[in-house]
Amino acid sequence: MSELIFYTNPMSRGRIARWMLEEVGAPYETRLVDWAAKPDDFLAANPMGKVPTIVHDGRAVSEAGAIIAYLADAFPEARLAPTAAERADYYRWMFFAAGPVEAAITNRSLGVTPGADQQGMVGYGSLDRVVETLKRAVSAHRYIAGDRFTAADVYVGSHIGWGKQFGALPACDEFDAYLARVMERPAAVRAREIDDALIAAASATPGG
User: What is the pTM of this model?
Assistant: First the structure.
């Protein structure tokens, strides 16, 4: 059995973890999870039944942001974890993406807009506030934590790309310039090609 098992579906947030796995460069075994028939070994690793989930050396890690941070620490030779100087921005913007950005994008995609009297309860205030904060964050340095690509760029870049794809984040020079720097990395391209090929194969299969 592989020391690193990756449970995913190519039409899910598993694409974020796939990119990180390709950046890390360690061998891993992909186990595809069907939405309707989730295998027992997967549910044993993650009773929530959500992808992505990894199992590394027998220990399960779920939640895309946690997987990204875990892999950066577990494979230091990839140099994707933050240095001391990068640590503040690294954690700040990683968790900003996991909290306010994802919540705001999801709510917009669902047609949910908090009223003025509700904004203090949702954690992100308003989508406009999130967008302006994120624009400043991706413009402050070449990468999200400084002048060097880190694991946080995988996570933040994925959320911006996802938000733009579904129309929840606006097209703007700040997002476009940042995405151009991170999305054309060889690992990012490989990850997209792998998942896109899996989607194409499933579509070509009768009943897929």
Answer: 0.93
